[in-house]
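Case study B.
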Amino acid sequence: MARSRSVGAEIVSSYTGAPRLAVPGSHSALQLLRGARDEGVEAVLVATRRQYEAIYSRFEWLYSRAVLLESWSDFTEKRTLEKLRELNAVLVPHASLIEYVGADKLVGLELPILGNRYLLEIEASWDRKITLLASAGIETPRIYRSPGEATTPVIVKLPGAKGGRGYRAATPETLPRVLEELRQLGYSPEEVTVQELLIGVRLYVHYFASRVMDRVELISMDHRLESNIDGLSRLPPMLAAQLNLEPTFTVVANQPIVARESLLAKILDYGDRFAAAVEKETGHPMIGPFSLEGVVTDKLEYKVFEFSGRIVAGTNVYMGQPAPYGSLYWETPMYMGRRIARELRLAWERGLLEKIVT
Amino acid sequence: MARSRSVGAEIVSSYTGAPRLAVPGSHSALQLLRGARDEGVEAVLVATRRQYEAIYSRFEWLYSRAVLLESWSDFTEKRTLEKLRELNAVLVPHASLIEYVGADKLVGLELPILGNRYLLEIEASWDRKITLLASAGIETPRIYRSPGEATTPVIVKLPGAKGGRGYRAATPETLPRVLEELRQLGYSPEEVTVQELLIGVRLYVHYFASRVMDRVELISMDHRLESNIDGLSRLPPMLAAQLNLEPTFTVVANQPIVARESLLAKILDYGDRFAAAVEKETGHPMIGPFSLEGVVTDKLEYKVFEFSGRIVAGTNVYMGQPAPYGSLYWETPMYMGRRIARELRLAWERGLLEKIVT
Amino acid sequence: MARSRSVGAEIVSSYTGAPRLAVPGSHSALQLLRGARDEGVEAVLVATRRQYEAIYSRFEWLYSRAVLLESWSDFTEKRTLEKLRELNAVLVPHASLIEYVGADKLVGLELPILGNRYLLEIEASWDRKITLLASAGIETPRIYRSPGEATTPVIVKLPGAKGGRGYRAATPETLPRVLEELRQLGYSPEEVTVQELLIGVRLYVHYFASRVMDRVELISMDHRLESNIDGLSRLPPMLAAQLNLEPTFTVVANQPIVARESLLAKILDYGDRFAAAVEKETGHPMIGPFSLEGVVTDKLEYKVFEFSGRIVAGTNVYMGQPAPYGSLYWETPMYMGRRIARELRLAWERGLLEKIVT
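Model:
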């Protein structure tokens, strides 16, 4: 695909003087601010007045400017964006920003984004996400089209079921019986989806696609804790049986984790493949942080069920610390927030700013 | 409440020369010693001969003096306290010290304590603890006075039951039936306590109330591992069913954890509120480390079931490391043991010693 | 036992110039390379061409030489070993190397090994391992010879059962009934093994036996995540019941953990005892990294079910970071990979190279 110049590259080329890292409130803002500080990059906090008062006003030494909003709907207003451009702002997007502003508005945002903004459109569609992973040659959970195909435990998903209610699990042996039961409940085999159930250790892997260094770096990994499932599975069995609650999966916290070193062969390869697939699909290179999220099975397969085209909050576990894998590329302690600020600094110093934004 | 001068302020005002950090053996002594070393503060180890030989004799480079006891009952003897005062000792209390010496003796101890010693009396009473949390406006598990009130899963506690034996769990729907069953077993509804059952991710949050900086800092968080429950809940289901063991909850180990950044709005607020409530209740400000211990539910509420008015052992996970949140206040790597030593150093340098002790 | 000079001591005494750390690919190679870099020790990567291309070629700044193999069977060829000796190589063995090359070949390897190579023979036999632990006075899971002896939950192991299939769990109360059931299935009480079932928090403790400092250091601890058991135990109960899968225990990842400080009395003692027992048993001192792997019960006993006579992959959790306990011995940040490189550097500087190899 022919590459057109991005709106971000356009804008950044007009900046005079050093760029500033524009950090939206919440999600991973604190490590981004700390990272900028570590790299001697000026940071601009962008936050609602409420976020500022509750959290970020306590850490003013970490940024030199704050753009305060009455509400996030003000963010895309001309006045806000003008102010940010005057500050030579380069924006780091994250999931909270997308939630506040909407992916569609970010795609067209008149501000340089450190990252590939075109990926946002792909992420809005489940089908396009899975297609992207598949086209990259990354293993995903299998969909079985007939019961006889199933070689792993499966989850049987009902049409229109909300939050997993009524989903059934089965082994290849019990699957025909489960499908028969569902048929008697009125679900035809054509209606239900029989998907490989991933059972193993969940691994959220954090990468950084560097245009300055021309490589994809592995920075860290995390393990998520979710409510209520992580409380439910630790309830004394007798109490759990008395409650019989539906599990929920709200991400609440993250913990550090490292993988078996032999798994890195696949994990590093997946990082490269993902970046290449993004470039092929969007016509623009992968830039900056991204994440692959999957499960390692007892056969040491790494099956990816989700990706994020930007920084994930799990990187917060190493805020201010040398992340285990980040330390393999850099002499100084390196964590994701700092890595992003370093890319901005290096790109500026080497005249490559246009390469690290879209 | 009118504030009287504390015994600790009295004593410390008579010290000439730099204060020394008196670190009682066990609990979090090693990180306190390492923290003192990092800050250039002299440390005095206080330990039984047995603790010294088993553990602390291996790390003599971390402290300049050791006061060795035959047993912990010697600690409150005049001779010991005199020696410590001669060394300009400022004591850091922790749960092991309270266990060894008794809260009542510590309240009147003739030694400056880095912390609010009056809190010890409140902590000795469950009612006063919950009242303190409530008066601070911190959410705690709800007590339902009638079955109709219950809107969450509940635990039904029997009078005089030991270690949770016979406790029942229920949902709002099953609660009337459970109460009826208990009534038939001879428990009247007036006798049983129906308390909100917290199901989610346990979060132990570590704060530092700084009198020198005039703020409450968030330093780190941990996740606890307990025996046998964390082994039980990981037993293969078939074996677990064959055993049907009573769960136990002995804290054995701790792991690092970070919370969703949006939760910090509440977590930071709770820290401030707790410190303010302590000051109101005891007539003395909150000083130094404390901890709130609770559960984050799938609605992202943080419900606190317990607090500690001093350093908790969970801070050990970041011993010698830059704790994720501590790094947001300080240029240098910061963990709780070091933060305490820094407060002592700064207070000494600025003539504020009396403010950081009681 | 009279100590004979080891083959490694023989070879290393002929080295002229500084030794190089020979790091075999996989397992913990990355932290070993990073550790060498931190200590200013030159590293030699030894890896297959495939490992090199998939992983280690990305981190070339961490080593000065690479010895690439077509396959690991080339490792023990004369040509390879000659090349390594010409490079003044001192080899760090790990579990992957043993898997690739075989313990028997490593025992006789014509290359200095940083560690006690004679331990490899003991580790090849389950009986000798348990005997070594017992002779050290380290608590291991009890074997009950008659049902009446059992005072803890037990696992009843069947003769010839594969991967735990058919194993039964019991309490002291239910044990007679379980044995009776097994008798009816044709298993005589003489055939089955009744072993204490360890339920609690798993703790993998990492030590370093230093010949230069003449002490055993505690560096760090980790917690393992295994597939599928850690996924199984977190499955919503209803799905788990529908699947009824056999648990498997493939180690996939590791997480940081710290133990209650009071447990260190036992943990430190066990480290010393293990090193002493190894010296008594093999006639050569314990050298370098080793690990004890056990469970802490709710009575705060630490029962050890396994050991490793060399570096374990769980040390990777602190790669490039100050490990909590390592920081108690050293001013600089210290993790296992760096500790090993430091021992090599110090031994070389002090003329003690022969003492740290076999």
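Residues 264-282 of chain C form the longest helix (19 residues). The remaining cases will be described in the next quarterly update.
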